[in-house]
Predict the structure.
Amino acid sequence: MPKNIRLTTLPLALALLAACTAGGGSSPAASEAASGTAGADCTAESLETVADGRLTVSTSNPAFPPYVLAPEEGEQATEPWEFGDPTKGRGFEAAVAYAVAAELGFSTDAVDWIALPFENTFAPGEKDFDFALQQISYTEERAEVVDMSDGYYFANQALVSRSGTDLEGATSIDEVRAARLGVASSTTSLAYVEEVIQPEQDPMVYNDNDGAIAALQAEQVDGIVVDLPTAFFITAVQMEDGVVVGQFPGADEEEYFSLVLEKDSPLTDCVNQALATLSESGALDDLTQEWMSDSAGVPEIAP
């Protein structure tokens, strides 16, 4: 498991993976990818895909907002999707997948979706998909057995509290410092609490996010610090009265979500080129703003 994600043990959880800095960055290999694939033939006709002439994309099922949205009223969900339906193209990751597909030359109706358990996505071996996206953070360990693209999403740390508490209205780190904070051990969230927030009293450190959430529900802490995607999941699925108070300024070291491809996939360079094009054009920022900022409506906690 990655260092910030502790949610895969829950019955409905398909894991939200660690991401720890402000949106709109680029991963370390981005410039290399942009230059290294400049001469590559990345047209749909030339790409080796799982199904000839089609692009197969994997994500989680259930899929939750803001990554994939449920069908609108009157729409039928496409099998087998339970809550979110990525074939509709709404929600951040659904929209990113179709944007990458378009850059590769695949029309919307040439994209097929399959559902896989989170852990299966980056397990060693052959894949039934061309690329997968499930809030999967890049790690060197994973990159040893699968190809992981340059980043498509960079997320801040966030503060989760209970509805109606004094901490719910916090707008500055100074206000947060006076609170009783909980955090999971061995995470970048803990490092952020200790190095940036520097609370007045030592944070309560738990084995995982489940322990921190239980402490918050039991009112043993006033708030917990997790990455922003995990905060979305906690408040959407795990806590009825949970609220995302706000997101903190970015940390120094970037962590990011990657598309996952089979090890040594012939598509990897072209996928990175597509991401670079979307980033340089501003399209990736626009998608992030539309689905991860406007939809989520999470304010920034001032330093």
Q: What stands out?
A: Residues 1-26, 28-37 have pLDDT under 50 and may be disordered. Strands lie at 55-59, 111-115, 131-132, 146-154, 157-162, 181-184, 204-206, 223-227, 242-247, 256-262. Residues 268-281 form the longest helix (14 residues).
